Amino acid sequence: MTGPQPLLTMRLRVAQDVFLIRQLAREVAREVGLEQQDQTRIATALSEVSRVVLGGYTDAEVTFAIRPDGVSTILRVSVERLTLGAARLRAELGHVGRLVDKMEVEDGETGTVVWMARRLSASAPRLTPERLEEIRAGLSAHVPGSPLDELNVQNQQLVTALNEVRAQRDELARLNEELEETNRGVMALYHQLSEELEETNRGVVALYAELDEKSEQLAAASEAKSRFLANVSHELRAPVTAIIGLSRLLGDESSDPLTTEQRRQVELIRGSASDLLTLVNDLLDLAKAEAGRIEPTWGQVDLKAMFGQLRGTLRPLATRDEVTFSVDEPAVSSIRSDEVLLARVLRNLLTNALKFTAEGEVRLTVRAIGDDVEFVVSDTGSGIAPELHERIFEEFYQVPGSKALSGKGTGLGLPYARRLAGILGGALRVDSTPGEGSTFTLRLPSS
Ligand code: ADP
């Protein structure tokens, strides 16, 4: 469809024509596919215009047409050849404009024109040229009813409109009620949740109090244990040292000669007492560390000197030719730490590495990582299964079946080393693969 497609034109002369035109308008609107409400709107708008026009003692020509309007189609009704001026009509028809999508009043060469438009819905049946022809034929055959008929129709429409309003009002009331109900529900839920939250909070607070109490008890128990260990080990040290001294004296050349068997037994006593002393010393160290009784003496530690010392004191332990023992020149010259404690940790790790490495290499290096320093003790020894990486830091834990190639162990070295690492403000971790070797890394702040 390109231009306007006229459907019907009729003249408006006498008062009865108002009813007629109203009927026709509704008919046309229905035929082109407007919905019932829209049919009533356009019919009412046109009858209002007609009423005003006839009231002004002028007659007019009314044309119904449909025409494209952008992407949609509109039903356009024009009332033409009016002798009333546009200004007056506009003033009188202001209220009518609300019933249609568009209404204009213009003065033209053939008199004043009022035209109105109502947009057809996109879902309405398509108006093909054949369909338009059919509508035209139908309209021209249309015989309008009497004014009474039209009045009846109007009444019917009014009843329908009233029913619709009532239905809407009922729906609104129902919605309001539902809303109120929902609000009540929400409030109840809110109260319930608040109460539950309060209850939970009370529970959490009580739980925390209990937790605090428990951790205090735990701290007290741990302290008691450390104190006990420290005291016992301290008390044990003197007699064990005495046993070692006495057994050494017994076996001395200057003492009375012993039988071979006696000498063997005295050696056994001395060996056992010596193991016991190691254990007692280790226990004492660990107990002191755990009781927080180790106060580091902070100072600038010369790593070159320390590494030299470690190289010297530990070389005698590296007795196997199959194992290379290397303490690299330190890549970091010094750090701020406690020299004695740091040396204890490194010596401990190196001794372990030498103890569990049959061939390959044991190496100590140091590197700077950001503001920290990492000491790395690596070996190509037996290695430790991943699930035991944390267990070896437990007191007395020794990997089952692991055999030290030299010296005995107490299972206290690594827990002690980790404690010292913590006291020095750092951490100790292990990375190890069974059969390939282990790497113990001590990370400390450099200043
Ligand atoms: P120990 O006195 O037995 O050496 P530690 O606490 O120092 O006690 O070590 C605990 C256990 O961890 C050792 O008994 C050993 O089984 C294992 N372990 C420690 N270091 C190494 C290592 N470098 N290679 C293999 N196993 C190790």
TrEMBL record:
Location of this chain's protein in the cell: Cell membrane
CDD domains (UniProt xref): HATPase_EvgS-ArcB-TorS-like, HisKA
Stretches assigned to the Histidine kinase domain: 231-447
Molecular-function annotations in GO: phosphorelay sensor kinase activity
Coiled-coil annotated residue ranges, if any: 148-224
Enzyme class: transferase
Annotated EC: 2.7.13.3
SMART domains: HATPase_c, HisKA
Reaction catalysis annotation: ATP + protein L-histidine = ADP + protein N-phospho-L-histidine
Name under which the protein is recorded: histidine kinase
Organism: Paractinoplanes brasiliensis
